[in-house]
Amino acid sequence: MLKAIIFDMDGVIIDSEPQHKRAALRVFERYKAPADYEYCTSFIGSSTANMAADAVKRFHLPVSPEQLLAELNEEKKAVRKEEGYLVLPGVTELIKHLYQKGYRLAVASSSSPAEIEYALKSLGLKKYFKKLISSVNTEHPKPAPDIFLLALKELGVNAKEAVVIEDSHYGCQAAKAAGIVCIGYVNPNSGKQDLSDANVLLESFEAIDSRFFVNVHCRSTGQPVIIANTRRLLIRELSASDIKEVYDIYRNPDVRRYIPEITDYLDMEMEKQAAYIRNVYSFYGYGTWGVFSKTSKQLIGKCGLENLMVDGKEEIAISYLLDSKHWGYGYALECCKAVLEYAKNQLDITRIVAVIDCENTRSIHTAKNLNMHLEKEITHKGRQCFLYGITL
Fold it and tell me: Does this model's pTM top 0.85?
């Protein structure tokens, strides 16, 4: 279960990397050191102390690493005083939202403790964070996992209960080494960072909420994502352990009557289900999900969304099937309503269709109760069907 979210600061909360590089280049210019923008970029996610030590050695500077570090930090303050803090769009609202949802929040940054505290206080964000962690207080900076291991300890959670947001190659490496799910934030001002160690990439903090983090965490740790929790039903992604129950439902000829794509080779069909679970949910963000009775905790059917070529046009279609033992209780309408709501609110899908066999009176009745409108009669996979549609 996700309990904590750990933010890097520079490049994730504040867009400070361009300022840091301008400050560093001013200092290097004083010493006539041939450092350039790319050189400064190579230390993103590491520490200023590491850059100072490297620069003294590489450029043969007539100063100690400690003195150069002090000059770099002073110049960063000067640039910040000139330009102020640049907050990344949407991150302030996201931090407040996650705090209100009860998640334990921390900053784990290569900046100094004073820099972290000053920045968050200036932005009015310090109160939302339970812990502020600096690499100054660890033995090894990123890409070592030390800072994230310390953050876990301070937050009172384990690696399986947290998510990290990082914009740098070193940061993603550190999160992976700590065993924490990592979201790589693609910040163009952080240079061409290799974020391949992240579990997923994110290009904007705007219009995302806690559900995004829960879904990433679930998929990255092998847990099925919960789609909806209705009065009587739980709708969630299927897992490999559900396949036997899917098999039992598919064996029922009444269930298969209007689903021509299900063959008589059910073992082969279950292999397809396993591949579907592994690949489709994470790629599209939707699919056909399991419908579970909250009373019995048993799988009673499937319901969800699928990409479908309908009458020569690509559509997103809603579909469902229920074990015949559960027909006639309104479950189809209940699960389909939940799926349409999820499609509208979480996936920003604006049009959904349903392709229904002309003889399938139960599904036609359900489509009408969902306020779907009959558009036309079509031939689909060799059967005469009605095409229903709805604008969300």
Answer: no
